[in-house]
């Protein structure tokens, strides 16, 4: 059995859904951002501030390749992981890619008050969310399936993902 990769913008529920999905399937759950923080022994915001986004993206790619060697993992990926075509290939070659989506308004509501979102530390975060969603939408669209989480509970999203993955042919 291959892995399930959850991609999508920050605040769409990747970590919450991923954790619940892994429990339901009795698989391992890993949040790539948390794994990077553990390996680097510092927060993502520190990595962005000191080394920049390009350095972070290299760490992300390396960490994804390591996790992709495993089986029966539910992987919550960082929102920008899809910007690298090689990452998309790695995920598709080793599992099912599910994109979680939400409206800009819902995303802002979910992430407001959090300081660990380096890409949203700007004067107008809603405008930034809209811009980044527009830029990333063609990349997110490459997922096997996209699900809008705006009006659904974690339990409902998990149920929907289980339908998707049970319908995909096993390789």
* Count of helical stretches: 8
What percent of the residues sit in helical stretches (DSSP H or I)?
A: 40-55%
Kindly name the structural category: alpha/beta
Helix and strand run: EHEHHHEHEHHEH
Distance between the termini: 8 Å
Amount of beta strand: 5-15%
Largest sheet: 5 strands, parallel
Strand order of the largest sheet: 2-3-1-4-5
Topology of this structure?
Blueprint: E1 3-8, H1 14-25, E2 28-31, H2 32-40, H3 44-51, H4 53-68, E3 73-76, H5 85-94, E4 95-101, H6 104-111, H7 125-140, E5 145-148, H8 154-167
Helix pairs in contact: 1-8, 2-4, 3-4, 4-5, 6-7
Task: Please provide a written account of the structure.
Strands 2-3-1-4-5 form a 5-stranded parallel sheet, sandwiched between helices. The protein has helices spanning 14-25, 32-40, 44-51, 53-68, 85-94, 104-111, 125-140, 154-167; strands at residues 3-8, 28-31, 73-76, 95-101, 145-148. The relative contact order is 0.21. The radius of gyration is 15 Å and the shape is globular. The chain is α/β, with parallel strands linked by helices and 171 residues long. The longest helix has 16 residues, at 53-68. Helix 6 crosses helix 7. Helix content is 54%, strand content 15%. It is built from 8 helices and 5 strands; from the N terminus they run E-H-E-H-H-H-E-H-E-H-H-E-H. The model has no long low-confidence stretch (mean pLDDT 91).
